[in-house]
Design a protein that fits this description.
CATH class of chain B: Alpha Beta
Number of domains of chain B: 1
Radius of gyration of chain B: 17 Å
Oligomer: heterodimer
Low-confidence stretches of chain A: none
Radius of gyration of chain A: 20 Å
Number of domains of chain A: 1
Shape of chain B: globular
Shape of chain A: elongated
Distance between the termini of chain A: 31 Å
Number of strands of chain A: 0
Strand content of chain B: 25-35%
Number of helices of chain B: 6
Helix content of chain B: 25-40%
Structural class of chain B: alpha/beta
Mean pLDDT of chain A: 85
Chain lengths: 176, 228
């Protein structure tokens, strides 16, 4: 079922791309400010930003869960008609949300690895470039774990909304 | 008719709705027996209660009173999980609006019924191919619903309804959005499934499709007025 959640996620191209980009940006910014907070270069302000970004990620997860369940009510109702339980649908919705966050995490990791590699490569030739932004791996992993943790609240919301989807909706005519 | 032959037995079924302050009696003391392997047409004008009857017989809606014995089990008091399992194993649905998932291809739509099962993907794919072959739509397996005609969409929906070899297929106005030629094809296909797979089929319609059924039930104002 998780693989099918990934399939459904990828097929929802526009929503998937938009949310992946937002998650990518948020994960990067949060990791960056955690990095600054640990460094102490930005003082207390860095941690305030971290809290704001965590709050934003919570809002984003709730919004994503709401969009996935509400916009596709007829699909979930049809799935209920053909024998899906509420749990089956929750696995699909949760998988879609989780996959989007994980893709955001991997994009950040990839981008940072490439950035670090390019800087190291140029410096090897004798140049002395100081990287503008180089975030350690630990804040990125920590941020992603918190983001995934925050999504549990989104899963609870999704489950409550999935419970309310009555299979009978699938039999209503589109015009109704 | 022995008890063993009966697939669906509705006993004294009542259902009321409240709409805009008024009480609408959608089903009034409905009694009905449908034998295993029967092709039944439920016919009547809009608002006569035929869709409510279909919903109640499939466990999508609960009756206010009465019993629905589906393949020996009273589903009027079953839990939601039990009803889900019943639908997954014993019932296939065909909808007027096809209800295919637009972001999935034809074969993925058919396969989706078996996603929550323990079957391996290869086995699911083989069954979906067989179901699409049964409805003569194999050449369209990789097409998305938007790339299919109305008749093709409904055939795909029928493939989805038969992939798990259900005991009963419930079709709600399956030809409601189709032209006369596609209507013939779809009804012919349901008849073929009924004969070859011995699947019990219930078709709810406001059109005159009696010629396809073994039995036609006419409804009016929540009551069965005639069985032919």
């Amino acid at each position: 079922m998780w693989r099918k959640a990934i399939l459904l996620s990828l097929r929802e191209k526009r929503v998937f791309v938009v949310f992946t980009l937002i998650y990518t940006t948020l994960i990067f910014l949060t990791s960056f400010f955690i990095h600054l907070g640990i460094d102490g270069t930005f003082g207390e302000l860095a941690w305030n930003f971290v809290l704001i970004f965590f709050g934003t990620s919570l809002f984003l997860s709730l919004l994503y869960a709401w969009i996935l369940v509400s916009r596709k009510r007829r699909v979930w109702a049809t799935f209920k008609c053909i024998g899906y339980t509420n749990k089956n649908i929750l696995v699909l919705v949760s998988g879609m949300i989780l996959f989007t966050t994980l893709v955001g995490f991997f994009i950040v990791i990839e981008a940072l690895f490439h950035y670090a590699a390019i800087v190291a490569y140029i410096n090897q030739t004798g140049a002395n470039i100081t990287p503008l932004i180089l975030v350690d791996l630990v804040p990125v992993v920590f941020t992603s774990l918190i983001f995934i943790g925050v999504q549990i609240i989104a899963f609870i919301l999704a489950y409550r909304k999935v419970l309310k989807v009555r299979p009978i909706i699938a039999l209503k005519k589109v015009s109704e | 008719m022995s008890e063993k032959d009966i697939m669906i037995d509705a006993v004294d079924v009542n259902k009321e709705y409240r709409r805009a302050g008024a009480i609408i009696r959608a089903l009034a003391d409905v009694n009905l027996k449908i034998r295993s392997g029967e092709f039944v047409i439920i016919q009547g004008p809009t608002g006569c209660g035929k869709s409510t009857l279909l919903n109640v017989l499939s466990g999508l809606d609960l009756p206010d009173s009465g019993r629905i014995i589906f393949d020996g089990e009273n589903i009027a008091r079953a839990t939601e999980d039990r009803l889900s399992k019943l639908r997954r194993h014993k019932i296939g649905f065909v909808f007027q609006d096809f209800n295919l998932v637009n972001t999935l291809t034809g074969i993925e739509n058919v396969e989706s019924v078996l996603w929550p099962t323990v079957l391996r993907q290869k086995e699911i794919e083989n069954r979906a191919i067989a179901a699409l072959r049964d409805v003569d739509l194999l050449d369209r397996k990789d097409h998305f619903p938007v790339q299919m005609s109305g008749g093709e969409k409904q055939r795909c929906a029928i493939a989805r309804a038969i992939i798990h070899r259900p005991r009963v297929i419930l079709a709600d106005e399956p030809t409601g959005n189709l032209d006369p030629q596609s209507e013939k094809e779809v009804m012919g296909l349901l008849k073929k499934i009924n004969k070859e797979m011995e699947t019990t089929i219930l078709v709810v319609t406001h059109r005159n499709l009696s010629s396809y059924g073994d039995k036609t039930i006419r409804m009016d104002r929540g009551k069965i007025v005639k069985i032919t």
